[in-house]
Amino acid sequence: MTSEISSRYPSMDDLRERAKNRVPQFAFEYLDGGCNEDVSIIRNTAEIRDVQLQPRYLRNFGESDTRTKVLGMEFDAPFGISPVGLQGLMWPNSPEILAKAAHKHNIPFILSTVTTMSIERASELTEGKAWFQLYNPVDDALRDDIIDRAEAAGCPVLVLLCDVPTFGYRPRDIRNGLALPPKMSVKNILQILGKPTWALNTLKHGQPTFQTLKPYTPEGLNLRQLGQFMDKTFSGRLNAEKIKPIRDKWKGKLVLKGVASEQDTKDAIDMGFDGIIVSNHGGRQLDAAQSTINSLREITRYSEQIEIMMDSGLRSGPDIARAMASGAKFTFMGRSFMYGAAALGNKGGDHTISMLKTQFKQVMDQLCCERVEDLPNHLIK
Ligand SMILES: Cc1cc2nc3c(=O)[nH]c(=O)nc-3n(C[C@H](O)[C@H](O)[C@H](O)COP(=O)(O)O)c2cc1C
Q: Where are the coiled-coil regions (predicted)?
């Protein structure tokens, strides 16, 4: 991290502001928005920030260590990059930027089924360490083909998504007529002309397309067609019958993402998942949802039986510490890393990870907490 960047962009708000200035409005709103009236997206962060931690100043304190184990792997910090679809639309080449940075910093990168980089490329950039998020295909042959590709790429973790039973209702995207490639309405052209760095980078890297799904997808879908294609090709509605063949086939770790209830946690344990990510898709699906920090509290009692991770609403080192103190074994963030990539291009992944690591370590030092697994001892109940 160069010191100029670190002094100009020391917080997520700084990165978000710069991203907003560099990305056309229709693409920024796709990244930044929640759904319906934006209640859930606001609640997620607000309720994480209600969590308070207590320092232990008089304890013998050596050095804090941010290394964290999850699913049998050790990472340099207790956070990773959540799967985000259509990344290249928000910032050209952003999945490559983020995968490379995650690999350099030894944190996990999860590739979305519907993003603009392929499983094979993600694996190449991370020396086989990228995790893969699967939208469950309706067609068994398609499902098996994607799983075979993830396995051939050496992917260690398959993340099955359960919180998209249907496409989210997002008024901004509906108004913007969001499409891939971007729809050339007068409004969108004017927005693109106003963001020359984004436009030039898009020209350089080419139209973003669904790279992993390329062999199976028709081209040039608008938002409505994309929704129809997704609904037809993938079934977010999961149950024991649909999950069993995936568990039987996948030899690596299997994680269920989007868990928000105790019952789904118990079912995930019964179905043989190794881990869950407590998530409400960053408040993009069910606007009446519980905040993920509250869902987490109801679920942590199962942490002996399944590894419990969390995302949705985290934006800073203190937020990560609050989630870990509340019982998460690991955390993930979606928008935060995309703000970083959009704000700073090739340097964005590196800077955002360094910034979050610095902020998180600083909280551990403030608490006089040496090990990440001791953070729950600092939680004020
Ligand atoms: C623009 C955008 C696209 C997303 N696309 C996907 C996706 O394709 N697959 C998936 O599992 N989750 C997707 N998510 C959800 C993220 O993985 C993650 O759960 C969410 O961003 C966490 O909330 P945060 O942004 O507040 O950190 C997306 C989120 C955003 C913001």
A: none
